[in-house]
């Protein structure tokens, strides 16, 4: 896997993925940014959300669950001083579907967190990562 980040101006940059996609990142105004894009640490958190959602949906679909929507809400705390690493991350899944069983959703989340989601496993080595979920009927 490869990526490239090119500086634009101030603290703005464009990240280009090896698969050919681009995203703008920037810093806050108080650090010289113009707030043109997501912060790099926000991008890391978004990557975790996308990685685990991908896994959970794949596991549920393989189990023939009728999922019509899935939202992953993430909240994180960071260290007060540099390096301001994540110290705690909470991942909340909102899974919508027909006849979804709590055990089935819980198992999919556990498999993602403990076996499949590279981002989750990597971040859990540095921060406390917790999970919970709610099921909504379709």
Beta-strand fraction estimate: 35-45%
Sketch the topology as an H/E string, one letter per element: EEEHEEHHE
Structural class: alpha+beta
**Kindly state the mean pLDDT as a whole number?**
97
User: Termini separation (Å)?
Assistant: 37 Å
Compute the gyration radius: what is it? 17 Å
SS summary, helix count: 3
Describe the main β-sheet briefly.
3 strands, antiparallel
Strand order of the largest sheet: 1-2-3
As a percent range, the share of helical residues equals: 25-40%
Outline, from the CA principal axes?
elongated
According to DSSP, the number of beta strands is 6
Low-confidence runs: none
Please outline the helices and strands:
Blueprint (H helix, E strand, L loop, with lengths): L2 E7 L2 E6 L4 E4 L14 H23 L3 E13 L7 E13 L3 H15 L1 H7 L3 E10 L1
Parallel strand pairs: 5-6
Antiparallel strand pairs: 1-2, 2-3, 4-5
Helix pairs in contact: 1-2, 1-3
Give an overview in words.
This protein is an alpha+beta fold. Strand 4 and strand 5 form a beta hairpin. The protein has helices at residues 40-62, 102-116, 118-124, and strands at residues 3-9, 12-17, 22-25, 66-78, 86-98, 128-137. The strands form 2 sheets. Strands 1-2-3 form a 3-stranded antiparallel beta sheet, with no helix packed on it. A 3-stranded mixed beta sheet has the order 4-5-6. The protein starts with a strand and ends with a strand. The radius of gyration is 17 Å and the shape is elongated. Helix 1 (40-62) crosses helix 2 (102-116).
């Amino acid at each position: 896997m490869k990526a490239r980040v090119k500086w634009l101006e101030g603290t703005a940059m464009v990240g280009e993925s090896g698969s050919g996609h681009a995203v703008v990142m920037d810093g806050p105004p108080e650090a010289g940014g113009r707030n043109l894009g997501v912060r790099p640490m926000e991008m890391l958190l978004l990557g975790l959300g996308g990685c685990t959602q991908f896994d959970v949906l794949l596991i549920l679909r393989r189990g023939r669950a009728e999922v019509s929507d899935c939202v992953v809400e993430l909240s994180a705390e960071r260290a007060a001083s540099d390096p301001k690493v994540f110290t705690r991350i909470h991942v909340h899944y909102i899974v919508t579907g027909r006849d979804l069983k709590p055990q089935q959703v819980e198992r999919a989340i556990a498999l993602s967190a403990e076996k499949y989601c590279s981002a989750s496993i990597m971040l859990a080595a540095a921060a406390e990562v917790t999970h919970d979920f709610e099921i909504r009927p379709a």
